[in-house]
Amino acid sequence: xxxxxxxxxxxxxxxxxxxxxxxxxxxxxxxxxxxxxxxxxxxxxxxxxxxxxxxxxxxxxxxxxxxxxxxxxxxxxxxxxxxxxxxxxxxxxxxxxxxxxxxxxxxxxxxxxxxxxxxxxxxxxxxxxxxxxxxxxxxxxxxxxxxxxxxxxxxxxxxxxxxxxxxxxxxxxxxxxxxxxxxxxxxxxxxxxxxxxxxxxxxxxxxxxxxxxxxxxxxxxxxxxxxxxxxxxxxxxxxxxxxxxxxxxxxxxxxxxxxxxxxxxxxxxxxxxxxxxxxxxxxxxxxxxxxxxxxxxxxxxxxxxxxxxxxxxxxxxxxxxxxxxxxxxxxxxxxxxxxxxxxxxxxxxxxxxxxxxxxxxxxxxxxxxxxxxxxxxxxxxxxxxxxxxxxxxxxxxxxxxxxxxxxxxxxxxxxxxxxxxxxxxxxxxxxxxxxxxxxxxxxxxxxxxxxxxxxxxxxxxxxxxxxxxxxxxxxxxxxxxxxxxxxxxxxxxxxxxxxxxxxxxxxxxxxxxxxxxxxxxxxxxxxxxxxxxxxxxxxxxxxxxxxxxxxxxxxxxxxxxxxxxxxxxxxxxxxxxxxxxxxxxxxxxxxxxxxxxxxxxxxxxxxxxxxxxxxxxxxxxxxxxxxxxxxxxxxxxxxxxxxxxxxxxxxx
Length: 652
Known about the structure:
The chain is α/β, with parallel strands linked by helices. The chain contains 22 helices and ten strands. Helix 6 packs antiparallel against helix 11.
């Protein structure tokens, strides 16, 4: 019973959610592959129910006939039967549990695979507007809740129905008057359960909220970034006091919940005791009056507890079932989301990629379609719905905020604001195989967004992008991904070994190829000097490495991939001059015969470019070589004078 109310609490609603016929049919579709196991479990439930009905009848027979007749032989056989029935029932329960687990874990597997595969197809836009905690909740909390609907909730409802019906039939066959007395107290049972259940639900909800607040504080201050910030600002004492307050709230709410929960179950127990008292009192009077035997009273007493337990489960069945099925609804919401970046039914697969890249009047803006996003779900106890960790204010909803270009750095001053409606507008240029195209311009101009369009992380709103004469939308996503290697502004490494992070680009790469790529990125000597070499674990997001070391590993990873198109977003921004010079020399060989699109704020990269695109406010203002653009005396010449000329002097 408590589990049912707990599910009710987690639903985040004061009224149970509605279950539609369409939703129910879709839920049952996930149970269809396990039809054989389900029927097997129903058979096992019937066997278990029959076995549970035998024990009270044996007691009745022993008390009324065997003991008065002093039949020792029969008494021994009945005692052996009382021992064998629980043993047999235990064996049946093991089989039932195995079948139940097979169904439940199978459903979890099917749902998780379907969810994860769907999320792999979602565009970058979806992930930039969805909380990671919400995705984890769908893959864990909601999947397990959906599994409960099939393997637990439905099974429990069927079990309770069979047990209640069977017990009532046996009780009525023994004595219909006592059976009527046993059932007459059920309205009182439901009234008290509803009233006390509401109070317990409110207290538990509050407890989950304060517990989430405490967990959020721990999550924010005990991760490596938070711990570093606390130490740098000397706020350890204040954070300890803040945590003490929240832990005290959790303690106090736990005490309140335990007290009210105890009252809840004591009251329910008292109501059940009323029925038991009536049965034994009225039954005793019937025995004295000679209407039936003592054995019948004993059998009734045994059946009564099982009956109330089964009817109690049925009383909570609507709440338990609807709150379990609503988890299916949340899972289906993800599965039914439209995919932004669609692949054609029969896409063209790139085989021999030359690397000719053409942008033709490309216009793009970051837009959000609410239908393509997950709905907000109030999850009590979830870190995603906690109030702000330090101030305690409500967390703002940033879903409707104006989108910003990924990778925009706000620290740089520009001649004019980059705020605008269109991120990219009327972008046209072409890059031949082997050419190096450099993108320059102020932060927020749209350079990173332009590079995101090349591997189809986003699709342009207008215009087209072609690779070797094929529109990117006509190509298979796998072959397009294989043709492009990208080093992003924010380097991401998995919490694994350096070897595993490098092999992510090409899992079948040989050791020599791996080391050659590391040498090309000027990181091999650093790696072999580590105690564990290539088997060194880099830590979460590569936190154990410096920014330059992470970036060189990312470069080695893309070199190992050996793509025909290279996209480098500030690929050498964290490197010292010596390392950058070595990498630039290596990249000359790597870029040979490849199309290379480089976002660079360093003159060394720009001077080597075959084509420089000067981007401002999402438009190409100027294009040409370094000498051509200087001769024009426009925006690029101004950037050179203010940003690069001093660097050029220092390099002489």
